[in-house]
């Protein structure tokens, strides 16, 4: 079984819709992250969480919100999706800051 | 402004030969560097890392070299195998401060190893 899972794996939605991407982990890590990948742009950090009570904005947080429901769950929401949020989204975890991060399989999102 | 740069979008190598993937960085506060490999339809997987107190780290066929004065690191794969064909991301960990623990990624290099 995968240590970091993401649901859904693929999603098509329309402009203006609210959607949620979910991430769960069984690694027992405290830190969780959300990234997006666009072609030719590498991975960019959206939000990160050091524990359930600690949420921080990353490089490109505008238009996104997150919820850390438990140590093992970290959700990313697009309150009103727009086409330029079409991308591949990855969740990641790590034991502590400044340590290797482990990634989920990704969610491919298309906003029409 | 890009802090981690992978200037070669793609690289093609013959099976059995050496693959060299390069990465440059601009922030002298970076003190830990990682390489990730990514296959299509999968998340990035950790490959190898190096601390700034070292200039070389080896793991099987994979070796990472760090030249701090040049702010340059490279990943060597010897010998290259077709299964190594993937996108390789260089990443750096920020120094202390607000970005502590956050990876800064390069744009990636797509490696193709031909049989």
Explain this structure to me?
The complex is a heterodimer of chains A (112) and B (115). Chain A is mainly β and 112 residues long. Chain A contains no helices and eleven strands. Chain A has strands spanning 4-7, 10-13, 19-25, 31-37, 43-51, 54-57, 65-70, 73-78, 87-94, 102-103, 107-111. Chain A is globular and about 35 Å long. The N and C termini of chain A lie far apart (33 Å). In chain B, a hairpin with a 6-residue loop joins strand 4 (32-38) and strand 5 (45-51). The mean pLDDT of chain B is 92. Chain B has 115 residues and is mainly β. Chains A and B meet through strand 5, strand 9 and strand 10 of A and strand 4 and strand 5 of B.
List the helices and strands and how they pair.
The complex is a heterodimer of chains A (112) and B (115).
Chain A lengths: L3 E4 L2 E4 L5 E7 L5 E7 L5 E9 L2 E4 L7 E6 L2 E6 L8 E8 L7 E2 L3 E5 L1
Parallel strand pairs in A: 2-11
Antiparallel strand pairs in A: 1-3, 3-8, 4-5, 4-9, 5-6, 7-8, 9-10, 9-11
Chain B lengths: L3 E2 L4 E5 L4 E7 L6 E7 L6 E7 L4 E4 L2 E6 L4 E6 L8 E8 L9 E3 L3 E6 L1
Parallel strand pairs in B: 2-11
Antiparallel strand pairs in B: 1-3, 3-8, 4-5, 4-9, 6-7, 7-8, 9-10, 9-11
Could you give a short description of this structure?
The complex is a heterodimer of chains A (112) and B (115). Chain A has 112 residues and is mainly β.
Tally of strands of chain A = 11
* Residue share in helix of chain A: under 10%
Query: What's the gyration radius of chain B in Å?
Result: 14 Å
The tally of strands of chain B reads: 11
Question: Can you tell me the overall shape of chain B?
Answer: globular
Q: What percent of residues of chain B are in strands?
A: over 45%
Helical/strand content category of chain B: mainly beta
